[in-house]
Design brief:
Length: 317
């Protein structure tokens, strides 16, 4: 085993001056990750008190300046602003001449590919879309979570290697996403991660209502096993009364939810119907049991007073 001293990342050539526009939960974390790889955070912009505190925590001693000054100081600019803000921000900065030729511009929106940066491209900027498939707290723990995190990468072909190199330097795994597939890619992540939080929160509320003192402790092992099984086996991991075709149990569930937590009924019915369809297609739910089960779901869906069952909105379930 070699005992030669490893070079300090700061001694590597081509280290970049990094700026952050939008000190939300993501930007300062990515800049801190790039700092560990030897790059130099030099400027950050943030408006709210929360963003300023976050910048001070993650990037101490890095000055808070207006966005235009971030561009002046930086070789690489992280545009970590809300999706709906991004197009207008890019256009405005390009029109005011903030973008320099050869400057790397990285946005972290899951929705958009690199074409949203076209105004900056026309000004000579180098556009990269690097979306970390991770939920962020805006704290130092996020830097550790980036290890092995997949990034949705979209960039012009000539910048693909540069984009992938930056992701690897942050500890992530680049996953190439075609420009036209970005909205579908982002919808898939939102469906899994965002809706999971809603489902878990609702489940915890119902367990508390049932008298469970520590619903988090009860759910932790169950949900951990369910997630692991789903990632390994997909639809083959489906279990529970819907997948088994226990129509009577599902009817009892709906009755209890309607009495104690009516706001959860529409979500339960929608997920139960989706689960039944997948279990039936995968051969887990027997056709002779599916008929009664789907009848229960349809009757419950049509019952007056069920949230979300009126008009066309209810048809989605």
């Amino acid at each position: 085993m070699s005992t030669a001293q490893q070079p300090d990342p700061r001694d590597r050539p081509a280290r970049l001056a990094v700026g952050v526009v939008g000190a939300g939960r993501v930007g300062p974390v990515l800049a801190a990750s790039l700092q560990l790889a030897g790059h130099r955070p030099v400027a950050v912009s943030g408006v709210s008190d929360a963003s300023r505190r976050r910048a001070a925590l993650m990037l101490p001693d890095v000055p808070l300046v207006p966005p235009a000054e971030v561009f002046q100081r930086s070789d690489l600019v992280l545009l970590t602003v809300p999706d709906d803000t991004l197009p207008g921000l890019v256009e405005g900065l390009a029109e005011t001449g903030a973008v320099r030729p050869g400057q790397l511009l990285v946005h972290t929106s899951g929705r958009y590919g690199s074409k949203v940066l076209d105004p900056a491209l026309r000004a000579g900027g180098l556009p990269l879309a690097l979306h970390p498939a991770m939920t962020f707290t805006g704290s130092p723990v996020d830097v550790q979570r980036l290890a092995g995190c997949s990034f949705g990468v979209t960039a012009p072909d000539e910048l693909r290697l540069a984009a992938e190199a930056l992701v690897i330097e942050m500890g992530g795994e680049p996953e190439w996403i075609a420009e036209e597939s970005r909205p579908l890619y982002h919808a898939a992540l939102a469906l899994g991660a965002n809706h999971l939080v809603t489902l878990v929160a609702q489940s915890m509320e119902l367990l508390r209502a049932a008298g469970v003192e520590a619903p988090d402790r009860m759910l932790g092992p169950l949900l951990g096993a369910a997630l692991d099984n789903a990632l390994r086996s997909g639809d083959g991991a489906l279990t529970g009364p819907v997948a088994r075709g226990d129509a009577g149990t599902v009817a009892a569930h709906v009755a209890e939810l309607r009495e104690h937590a009516p706001q959860t009924v529409a979500g339960y019915l929608a997920m139960a119907r989706a689960t039944a369809d997948r279990a039936l297609a995968h051969g887990l739910l027997k056709p002779e049991l599916a008929e009664d089960l789907l009848g229960v779901l349809a009757d419950a869906h049509a019952t007056p007073g069920t949230p979300g069952t009126h008009g066309t909105e209810g048809d989605a379930g």
